[in-house]
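stage 2 :: seqdesign
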């Protein structure tokens, strides 16, 4: 059996859990990381029951001081050889910037950006020793947009996209692939389910299940793809945003996400669906 491991953060639910399952299906050994009391031991047991791989887990709050360094030392103490790093853990919120508590903003930036960068920094020497290796950073369709009500979240995801592309160029010479996964709306939690409860079927087609995202993510990561946008609907939106004038994009996003704007020409279910596009990743 392959003695290398893939480390997956945010692995107890949603896209992270589905990526772990897809890697396990491909016989990749796993290190799973997630917050305490989020069902991580049960997830690890489920995967272990289904697939003949080595699997370990670490319940850890990556926003706490020294958490990333602790995780790295924990892996070294157990002689775990990492050749894939899946930086999936992240958090978002939807509220105006001036009404957001600064502690919530700090937590978002620490988890979405600081922890991701630190994980990459600490594990990079190991990845260089265990080539060919892969880094998969999870951004969002919001990486390419400025979204009112999700100001810091969208900016944090833009950082991930830029960081990933720059790092990819730096690490190419070491046979380390860096991919950025940018999913759209993904049904990952009860919050997302509630958001789309009254959305009609055509608009629900804009959303994906975590396992659909995971299959495209893992397949294209191993192919060495730079940008991974899962789903035809998300690819279409990405292309649309790239050709529309910025002023038009801003008007559309303001109409969708601002509660102050009347939307007489936009059916409510369509607006909710577009909002959900950025609620599940």
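stage 2 :: out
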């Amino acid at each position: 059996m392959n003695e290398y491991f893939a480390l997956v953060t945010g692995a107890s639910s949603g896209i992270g859990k589905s990526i772990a399952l897809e890697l396990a299906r491909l016989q990749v050994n796993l290190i799973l990381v997630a917050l305490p009391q989020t069902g991580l031991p049960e997830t690890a047991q489920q995967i272990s029951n289904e697939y003949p791989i080595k699997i370990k887990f670490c319940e850890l709050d990556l926003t706490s001081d020294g958490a990333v360094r602790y995780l790295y030392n924990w892996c070294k103490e157990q002689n775990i050889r990492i050749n894939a790093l899946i930086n999936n853990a992240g958090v978002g919120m939807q509220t105006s910037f001036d009404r957001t508590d600064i502690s919530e903003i700090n937590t978002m930036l620490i988890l979405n950006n600081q922890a991701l960068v630190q994980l990459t920094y600490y594990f990079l020497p190991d990845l260089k020793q265990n080539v060919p290796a892969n880094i998969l950073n999870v951004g969002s369709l919001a990486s390419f947009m400025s979204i009112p009500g999700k100001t810091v979240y969208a900016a944090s995801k833009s950082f991930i996209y830029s960081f990933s592309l720059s790092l990819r160029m730096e690490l190419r010479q070491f046979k380390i692939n860096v991919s950025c996964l940018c999913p759209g709306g993904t049904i990952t939690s009860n919050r997302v389910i509630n958001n789309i409860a009254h959305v009609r079927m055509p608009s629900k087609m804009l959303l994906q299940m975590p396992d659909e995202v995971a299959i495209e993510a893992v397949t294209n990561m191993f192919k060495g793809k730079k940008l991974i946008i899962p789903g035809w609907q998300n690819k279409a939106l990405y292309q649309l945003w790239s050709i529309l004038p910025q002023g038009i994009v801003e008007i559309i996003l303001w109409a969708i996400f601002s509660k102050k704007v009347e939307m007489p020409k936009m059916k409510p279910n369509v607006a909710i669906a577009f909002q959900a596009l950025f609620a599940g990743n």
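stage 3 :: structure notes
- The first helix runs from residue 14 to 25.
- The chain has one domain: 4-187+208-231.
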